Amino acid sequence: MLEELGEPFEHVPARPGSKEVTDLNPSGKIPVMIADGTAVSDSSAILHFLADRSGRLTYPAGTLERARQDSWTYFLLDELDACLWAAARHSFVLPEDRRVSALKPTLRWEFANAIRSLSIRIGSGPFLAGARMTVPDIVLGHCARWAGLANFEIAEPKVSSLVERLHSRDAYRRATSY
Question: Rounded to two decimals, what is the model's pTM?
């Protein structure tokens, strides 16, 4: 998001659960962003904060365009991100004795269904919420990268085409080089 906005920032690599992270976010989860001396945690909160603060990559609150944008964001978080996060937890995040590998086929099935639904919902605009890039496009780009790393297939051409456009952006390439 910061790369797309062209905002200067300092990327500080830190491992989830490390002392430097838990000092800022007791859950130990990353990312954590420091803005005006205040820690902001959770990817979605960070994205919305940056978009609202800059007035870019978002539509104004209270508009139907914003409602459509938010609908896309929550769909992606609920349907794609949730499957990927559950698969990650049961692959390497949870202690081994708490992992249930038998969940993975179901998570892949749910993910595939969500991708089909996403393909049906995609309109004619070059981005999810229409003519311009917004927060849900950032979320989709992230989920698609994560899906590729986790071997979750994106088999719908409309979705994979959009993902290719998102991943070809200079800001995306810079962001994934850290």
Answer: 0.94
